[in-house]
UniProtKB/TrEMBL annotation, chain A:
The keyword Nucleotide-binding applies. GO terms for molecular function: ATP binding; ATP hydrolysis activity. SUPFAM superfamilies: P-loop containing nucleoside triphosphate hydrolases. The lineage of its organism: Bacteria, Pseudomonadati, Pseudomonadota, Alphaproteobacteria, Rhodobacterales. Gene3D superfamilies: P-loop containing nucleotide triphosphate hydrolases. Signal peptide: none annotated. It comes from Puniceibacterium antarcticum. The keyword Nucleotide-binding applies. This is ABC transporter ATP-binding protein. InterPro entries: AAA+_ATPase, ABC_carbohydrate_import_ATPase, ABC_transporter-like_ATP-bd, P-loop_NTPase. Coiled coil: none annotated. Pfam families: ABC_tran. Residues 6-246 form the ABC transporter domain. Keywords: ATP-binding, Nucleotide-binding.
From TrEMBL, chain B:
This is Xylose transport system permease protein XylH. GO terms for molecular function: transmembrane transporter activity. The keyword NAD does not apply. It is found in: Cell membrane. It comes from Puniceibacterium antarcticum. The keyword Transmembrane helix applies. The chain crosses the membrane at residues 28-52, 58-77, 89-122, 134-155, 176-196, 216-240, 261-279, 291-308, 315-335, 341-360. It comes from the Bacteria.
Amino acid sequence: MAKPIIQMENIEKHFGNIIALAGVSFDVVPGECHCLLGDNGAGKSTFIKTMSGVHKPTKGTITLDGKPMHFDSPRDAMEAGIATVFQDLAMIPLMSVTRNFFMGREPTKGRGPFKRMDIKTANDICVESMRAMGINLRGPDQAVGTLSGGERQTVAIARAVHFGAKVLILDEPTSALGVRQTSNVLATIDRVRKQGVGVVFITHNVRHSMAVGDRFTVLNRGKTLGTAERGRITAEELQDMMAGGQELASLEGSLGGTV
Amino acid sequence: MADTAQIIVDERIKKESFGSRLMQRPELGAIAGVVLVTIFFLFTADSAMFTLSGIMNFMTPAAQLGILAIGAAMLMIGGEFDLSIGSMVAFAGLIFGACVVTFGLPLIIAIPITFVFAALVGALNGAIVLRTGLPSFIVTLAFLFILRGVSLVGLKLATDGSTQLRGVRDAVEGDFLTPLFSGDAFGGLFAWLAEIGLVETFNNGAPKVPGIPVEILWFIALALAATYILLRTPYGNWIFASGGDRNAASNSGVPVRRVKISLFMLTACCAALVAIITVMDAGSTDARRGFMKEFEAIIAAVIGGCLLTGGYGSAIGAFFGAIIFGMVVIGLSYTNFDQDWFQVFLGGMLLIAVLFNNYIRKRVTGER
Ligand SMILES: Nc1ncnc2c1ncn2[C@@H]1O[C@H](COP(=O)(O)OP(=O)(O)OP(=O)(O)O)[C@@H](O)[C@H]1O
Ligand SMILES: [Mg+2]
């Protein structure tokens, strides 16, 4: 297998006396979609936040392209080519779609004191990226607060896809999306993967993860339950692992096998 | 890819009128306010108020407040308050006065020293707010008292017990930088305008308006620069983002700490500029300088459309907010009303502005 772009070893993260991550190892190779699965509160979001520079790990090492890496801020991670769709989307409702899209990485023109935002280019890229995801914006200067939940999620995804040069991290990106937009996101994951980007895809939907995943890692209570490659694990097995195995089985009877 | 910018016609959009687009601009309220106040004084005030000299009369205090208000507005958009700017005017005035009078330094050294001190206090304010996570409201309230007290004590030290430091005018007389910070600009132009009869003259032939007071030029230049920065530069985008949602901004790669600290420094430097201008103008500095100005500046910023919660507002709005202030303070003296109506007016204006801003915010975010 190709050398990993980013390798996380024995990552621990403590919040005061809460141990959110108790030694998680994980890596992403170019051109793969690595699914991260697990129950609510398993530590998935916390884990990808250490990968994208939001949290500093309490213990453990991060290696980027073979070199040890310390991200002091999300900006550092971004500059290293890691783009993330956070579960809370990191959007600002009062600002326009374009300003949100390019927040922190605005395209500029001119030099010296005349260096200014290239608003036209920014609007064009923004509208085009959104259209590629299947959403026609009413206008790039519309405030994000007026978008629907799914539209907002799509802006976050389009933004990360645009900036994710090496690693694209998606934390439950399809939770609010319609059928067409969801299949668009899955197709986009497939597309960027073919371009050599490593994708980390967090989802609670086993069908979605089976559709695009190359490897599957299941987290449970801050620990990895192991990593499986595509073809070595069935949807049912994944489902059971994600739920911790037990309760789902007893539910299944009463729900008539719909889970 | 030629027509990427073109937006596909969407049957779910009603045509938006020019008026309703205008309604979404934060400075709209302040502009409407200027119009209303103008109409009010056109009816009630002596006609002298709207002559050239009358306009200079109310624009001068407007400019002095406005320089503070523009700084306060940018900081508010960035999501923080600075209640210490009024005291900062006194503190910077003391530093400046001591530099030129006590130490006899030329302006080219005294002015940078004043700005450096102000910026350092601003940075300290910002660092405490960011490090502790306390509301800036409370941290800068502490500095409101600290700086006022330090100014008093410092003045007594510098003057052997008095709270006023005199002799600034003599000290800066003839300095090549003096015309930049005091007096009137374009004197020649106004003399010429008077000659050809466009500006009224006194009996001896001197123009009634000898030029444009420099603070007005600073005020206009600052409003334009701030607007350009806010709307057209990446840094401006970062200011809106930092104030809109600190976490989201930081997670999206905005260097929030740097932005906020620089804004605290900028606001403090605005206060220092006002201090330099007014101290040179008065020829002395005292401990009451800038008293209550922090509230007036914040009110002007709010009238100008800044939300108290941050992330929204405009420098041009603060510009007009300050002009409303100047018009009312000075304008009342052209009317038969009691001057003290000013305070009532102020409170009323603030209340209306806050209600109006709240309404605008709901429109912009589509909140229901
Ligand atoms: N900033 C924090 N302070 C304290 N505890 C935290 C913090 N962030 C996360 N946790 C805790 O860490 C655990 C893991 O949270 P995390 O958000 O990573 O879960 P998750 O796997 O993403 O869950 P979900 O599927 O619901 O999104 C939770 O128990 C949570 O309460
Ligand atoms: Mg999560």
